[in-house]
Amino acid sequence: MPQTADDLDAVAVRTWCSLALDALGREREAIDAINVYPVADGDTGTNLYLTVESAAAAVEAVFAAHETGTSVPSTADAVRAMAHGALIGARGNSGTILAQLLRGMAEVLGEGAGAGRLCLALTRAAASAREAVAHPVEGTVLTVAAAAATAAERVADGAGAPAVVRAAYEGARTALDATPGQLAVLGRAGVVDAGGRGLVAVLGALVEAVSGRAPERAYETPAAPAPALAPAGDCSAGDGPQDGPAFEVIYLLEAGDQAVERLRTRLDGLGDSLVVVGGDGLWNVHVHVDDAGAAVEAGVEAGRPYRIRITHFAADRLHARPEPAQRAVVVVVPGDGLGGLCAEAGATTVLARPGEPPASGELVDAIRRAHAREVVLLPNDGDLRHTAAAAAEQARTEGIRVALIPTRAAVQGIAALAVHEPDRSFDEDVVAMTAAAGATRYAELAVAERQSWTMAGICQAGDILGLIDGDVAVIGEDVPETARKVLDRMLAAGGELVTLVLGEDVPDTLADTLEEHVREGYLAVDTVVYRGGRQCAPLLIGVE
Predict the structure, then answer these.
(1) pLDDT at residue 237 above 80?
(2) What is the predicted pLDDT for the residue at 233?
(3) What b/e sequence results for 198-222 when a residue is b if at least 16 CB atoms lie within 10 Å of its CB, and e otherwise?
(4) Mean pLDDT across the chain, nearest whole number?
(5) Residue 411 and residue 527: Cα distance in Å, rounded?
(6) Tens of pLDDT along 181-224?
(7) Would you say residue 106 has pLDDT above 90?
(8) Which of 115, 92, 116, 307 is nearest to 198 (CA)?
């Protein structure tokens, strides 16, 4: 965690994005559950997560560009990347408004990031977000953002950055608690505004990034409220009307300021939930309309629209599509070898390249590509749990039934796929696959990059590490001996099948050595060997 500081530097911005993504990942389902304005369509948390995911990826790209040198990016580079990433990846009304809030902050923080600039950034953010919404409504995320800025202004004189952001967070919390009394639909449902709650999570991450200490208060996850009809008209934090327009239209637009002003007027006459954010020639346009073609044509008249997404709020889709298959499996694999193996078994695969885990958008695309009514998703990595959950939720909004099995390693995914039977009921299939994955212990070998403390003692750079269920259990000098020790530890608790997945540069003789070791030391234990291709670990091990 960062230490208390009076400036928000690039590292703190990076930390903020990472913490905000984690926070929204934890709260995504709870935020979706309280999304009742204007209807209970349950995707605000998911949209916020996807938006911040794009912002975090843009910041990581800036840092990656500096890896070959000795310097880190400037604060200006980091905050501008954050804002740009959020803009191009914004989803729904909630994500679009959050993108504008981050852009407003970036406009100020790009010129300095001390306590005074942070206060001014929060004020600019709240004002610019309100300007972006065609018909602002109180009791929404706009109200929460304004309260955060006002609270920060009260302590700005003489206070450090940690005090400013903590005041903003507390002000936002207080405003959020008051939203049920400002918006009737929230009061009837007994919930706070979903978009506002997401903003509080983002501000809480900012507090931790600046001060090194997370806020203590947290909401409990509520049960999903009953759907509530909203009053007619526009909104600032809802993500889909119930009795209103049939289509949600979102696109990025390259256009000048005057053309965008004309576009706002045109789209405001076509529908509601209009939010247009951005600037400097690049905009994100979000609107709900009955005539999706007219909304896109308006964008063409204004400039160059692209990344156009049109969603029909009804159960049917915009275009006729081939009849989907009943069930499919989507698997994240660490190497092309396993990708081929899973594809032969009928699965749709997503390649996780070393150091480049797939984003939720890639998983959603894979689910769509599987073209099935029912999909089982195997992330095969504990760090992908929030990403996979967001992808599953997004796919569900498109009418696809998705079951997420929380596999933490590729060998667990292989075990699950081995018992997959599409002819039995979906629930029975998911239960069987989950049981197979859960009964598979997993391990991998890795090379230590530096001296460090581990659960097994101190390792030196170049040591071979044997990780069992994610923790370092063995430290060795060579791969064969370390692998044997790992197998002995795993098989001490019993087992019937050992799965070995060899990396691209690992010789076949290693598999022969380990197979012989298992055969001689453990009766009735079978061994299967696969080539994983280019993967981050030289050896993956599974024991069932």
Answers:
(1) no
(2) 37
(3) bbbbbbbbbbbbbbeeebeeebeee
(4) 85
(5) 13
(6) 999 889 988 999 999 999 999 999 999 999 888 887 655 444 34
(7) yes
(8) 92
Q: What is the dihedral angle through the alpha carbons of 157, 160, 161, 163, rounded to the nearest 10 degrees?
A: -80
Residue 315 sits at φ, ψ, to 5 deg, of -70, -30
317: pLDDT strictly greater than 50:
no
Report the alpha-carbon distance of residue 535 to residue 504 in Å, rounded.
Answer: 7
Mean pLDDT: which of 120-129, 212-221, 446-455 is highest?
120-129
Starting at the edge strand found earlier in the chain, the sheet holding 372-378 runs 348-351, 325-333, 372-378, 401-404
Question: Residues 3, 213: contact at Cβ < 8 Å?
Answer: no
DSSP 325: E
Q: Are strands 401-404 and 441-447 parallel, antiparallel or unpaired?
A: unpaired
Instruction: For the chain, report the end-to-end CA distance as a whole number of angstroms.
Output: 38
- Residue at token pair 């095969």: 380
C-alpha separations of 502 from 288, 338, 343, 483 in Å: 51, 10, 18, 12
Per residue, the 3-state secondary structure of 56-79, as one string, reads HHHHHHHHHHCCCCCCCCCHHHHH
What pLDDT, in 10s, does the model give residues 467-515? 999 899 999 999 999 999 999 999 988 889 999 999 888 888 999 999 9
Q: Give me the residue label for tokens 């909104």.
A: 235
| Number of Cβ atoms within 10 Å of the Cβ of 110 | 18
Residue with tokens 């045109």: 266
Phi, psi at residue 473, to the nearest 5°?
-115, -25
- Rounded to whole angstroms, the Cα distance separating 242 from 92 reads 15
pLDDT more than 70, % of the chain = 89
- Taking every pair of C-alpha atoms in the chain, what is the biggest distance, in angstroms? 78
Length of the chain: 544
